[in-house]
Amino acid sequence: MLSRHLQLSEKPNLAIVGAGAFGEFCIPHLRRFFSIRLCDPRRDLDEVSKAHRVDTVDLATAAKQDVVLLAVPLRHLRSVAKAIAPHLRPGSLVVDVCSVKVKPLAILEEELPLSVSIIGTHPLFGPQSGRNGIAGLRIAICPARGRRSRMVERFLRGKLKLDVMRVTAEEHDRQMAYVQGLTHLITRIVVTMDMPPLEHTTATFSHLNTMVGMVRHDSDELFRTIIADNPFTDNVMQSFVKATKDVLQSFDVSSGKGALP
Question: Quick check: 117 pLDDT over 50?
Fold first, then answer.
């Protein structure tokens, strides 16, 4: 059992399924506490394995570890869940790190056996924002099945020094529709504008550039998940578009005459 393993000197086994940007980012932070196996059938793992000195395994072997961390795109989550389900050991823990929580947790609860615990997490940071360390950064945790959530919270707080927020999947997605939805939408718009280099900038503009720089290299897959797979994002996007139109219509740019009373 994971709780017993954590009390012993021997490290519990943890498999990271998905060696994308975030999956690889997790390795150095978790290897102090776990014996890590890496699995990603869609990527050649030779360089990653050598760089981080971790073993690579197939999906069936990954599923047999004490903890299985799923760092795969949402659109692949169901197929991965179906593939690992027959190989999961009773009492093991499955954790996902998707940026939305309602859909992935529903998928995992549907596809995985009742004998395993399921916890949804959303690290509110990534390779860019966490490049100088993750201590003090925030992570949301959404318990779904089993009694492991308090233990996981203690690990995240005590070992990784993260600021843990316990929240339901619905409330998480409702807030992230604003927090991430607007941030990534505005960033994509600014990047698409392809602005020239600017010398005479304000502090406010510098803050905007910092925000853009932190997420501009996030994948299209992540952007799609944040915008399209959050059940609450559509209303936020519609509100944003309406508010933008209202602001622009409040001032007639072509005539220079405002609509203010």
Answer: yes
